[in-house]
Amino acid sequence: MTEKRRVVCPNCDSINAVPTDRPAEAAKCGRCHAKLFQGFPIDLSSERLERHVANSDIPIVVDFWAPWCGPCRAMGPIYAQTTKSIEPRVRFAKVNVDENPQAAARYSIQGIPALVAFREGKVVARQAGLTDAQALRGWVERLAA
Questions:
Q1: Thioredoxin domain: which residues (predicted)?
Q2: 20 lies in a domain?
């Protein structure tokens, strides 16, 4: 029997069982048929974040940010580039703290940009502030291992 991983659809938030013996890059949602991995970070609300964190068998890295934050805007392209190179081993998401203050409060976000990594529904790592592409990639690669 083939082992499967739960992956939440970035489009409709349905929980999908993705066989580990098939390329995850080609996986599509069983409900809405959108690609499960699209090569860019997904925007999540507080509610959607909780659904993804609670129902995903792959690590999730979340960038807590705000549009008025200069370092956050500088981090955006670096984060997107890292997403393209590492996904689907890790899900990348973004949460706007101005629109989702309850998520920021729940995860004790005190400064932005802030990266929080989740595995099996729990926070496993944090990183605060602007970082370069190489450091970010190394941090995420260690989480994906």
A1: 18-145
A2: no
